């Protein structure tokens, strides 16, 4: 499996994890400790976007050479 595919799979896993954490955060929003789910979901969603961006950059760089 090449590096680009691994980045896309990792990004997809992080995206699904971020969405699940957002759902947990919204379900437990009345509790003070649910802010942990919010911070973690933001982290995972930002990391997923970053992984997709790096994978697209590597794909474009690979196609241009």
Structure overview:
The chain is mostly helical. It has one domain. Helix content is 85%, strand content 0%. The chain has two helices and no strands. The chain has helices at residues 3-27, 35-64. The longest helix is centred in the C-terminal third of the chain and has 30 residues, at 35-64. The chain is elongated. The two termini are 20 Å apart.
What key attributes describe this structure?
65 residues; mainly alpha; 2 helices; 85% helix
Write the layout of secondary structure elements.
Layout: H1 3-27, H2 35-64
Shape: elongated
Order of helix and strand elements from N to C terminus: HH
Number of distinct helices: 2
Question: pLDDT average, as an integer?
Answer: 93
How many angstroms separate the termini?
A: 20 Å
- State the low-pLDDT regions, or none: none
Give a brief description:
By secondary structure, the protein is mainly α.
């Amino acid at each position: 499996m090449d590096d680009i595919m691994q980045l896309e799979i990792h990004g997809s896993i992080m995206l699904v994890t971020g969405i699940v954490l957002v759902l947990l955060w919204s379900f437990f929003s009345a509790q003070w400790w649910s802010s942990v789910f919010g911070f973690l979901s933001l982290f995972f969603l930002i990391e997923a976007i970053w992984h997709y961006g790096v994978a697209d950059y590597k794909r474009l760089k690979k196609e241009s050479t």
